[in-house]
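Hi all, long-time lurker, first post. I run a small reading group and we've been trying to get comfortable going from sequence to structure in the token notation. Rather than ask abstract questions, I figured I'd post a concrete chain and ask someone more experienced to write out its structure so we can walk through it together at our next meeting. Sequence below, copied exactly:
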Amino acid sequence: MHCPFCRHADSRVIDSRATEDGSSIRRRRECPECGSRFSTSETASIAVVKRGGTTEPFSREKIVNGVRKACQGRPVTESDLAMLAQTVEETIRATGVAQVEAKEVGLAILEPLRKLDEVAFMRFASVYQEWETLEDFEAAISLLKLERENQTSPSN
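-- Answer (accepted) --
Happy to help. Here is the structure in token form:
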């Protein structure tokens, strides 16, 4: 780790602490050359394996951009999209794997998006799950209605 002050090629770790959510480590460092102290943050990277076999780093921004299209004209804010992307990342990190298939990322998006906006969910799912007929849409709508009824009916 280069010192941000004098650009010396080495630094010494003085203290390490996990962040509150446990997703990263904050390290306090000291430069042996100039004596300056600075902090770094380390997170484990996640690689997404695309359909063609190529890999790329996981990106919340790609999730937001993909879901934003499904949410056009819906009462969904940028803050809502950022929270959805965070939820998706937390879900993927909770699996504990360093590489995840792109399909798994898409599946991780579906449930939080359904809770956020059912119409946006239908738009996203229709493209993601490659629905081709009206029956595909009807089956998804029937399932959403059934789930809504089960949530609103009184429990025994």
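A couple of things your group might point at:
The mean pLDDT is 91.
The CA atoms of residues 60 and 85 lie 5 Å apart.
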